[in-house]
Amino acid sequence: MIQLFHCISARSFRPLWLLEELGLPYELHVLPFPPRVHRKDFLTQNPLGTIPLLVDGSARMSESAAMCQYLAARHSPRQLDVAVDEAAYGDYLNFLHFGEATLTFPQTLVLRYSYFEPEGRRQPQVVQDYAKWFLARLKTLDQRLANSDYLCADRFTAADVSVGYALLLAQHLEMAPQFPPNVAAYWARLQARPAYQRAQTEQWRLAKEQGAPEVAAPDIRP
User: Fold this and answer.
1) Helix 89-97 vs helix 158-172: crossing angle, to nearest 10
2) pLDDT band at 32; cut points 50, 70, 90
3) Kind and range of the H or E element at 171?
4) How far apart are CA 133 and CA 204, in angstroms?
5) What count of other Cβ atoms lies within 10 Å of the Cβ of residue 148?
6) In Å, how far from its chain's centre is CA 152?
7) Does the structural domain 2-80+195-219 have CATH classification 3.40.720.10?
8) What is the pLDDT of residue 218?
9) Do residues 36 and 87 make contact, with C-beta atoms less than 8 angstroms apart?
10) Strand extents, DSSP E, the chain
11) DSSP class of residue 54?
12) Average pLDDT estimate for 95-120
């Protein structure tokens, strides 16, 4: 059975959501954030101490967008995946990685310099600059979504999961009111998906059951 090591609303939410979309059996381990500080035993599973970690037989993966690509290709070809011979294959890969490299990266700096650093090391200017940087990149999505419900191939795919997580993180950082109109409508559609709602329910339920802090990882103070 697939195992996923997860912190509430961390990047590991991407593969958790996709597992629910796929209807696959999985075992979810909910850890306190960051696990390299609060769960030293996790280092035996992932020496980096980072979340996520997905274990599927001999496969051990630590990159959330790669997990989405892997799961979709293996378990949902031409559905949540886009095949190499489809015209939208390039768009699919681009948006799959756009969600992490372009949209999530600047938010990690907002998180670090507004929450995670000690008071004397926080950098309000860095927070402001990278929040603006993130919001400016949403213009690409807003244009893309003007005439389509989803990002590529005229259907919901793993690329939407990847980008959707970046919007979830932005919501935690209270930037959702600044989403442009098409992005705001898209985010509402994603949140209405039953699999998204099941993933949310499962992470909170298992956090309580496994004794992990019942708080979203972006709000944790180390």
Assistant:
1) 20
2) confident
3) helix 158-172
4) 31
5) 13
6) 18
7) no
8) 64
9) no
10) 2-6, 26-30, 53-56, 59-61
11) E
12) 91
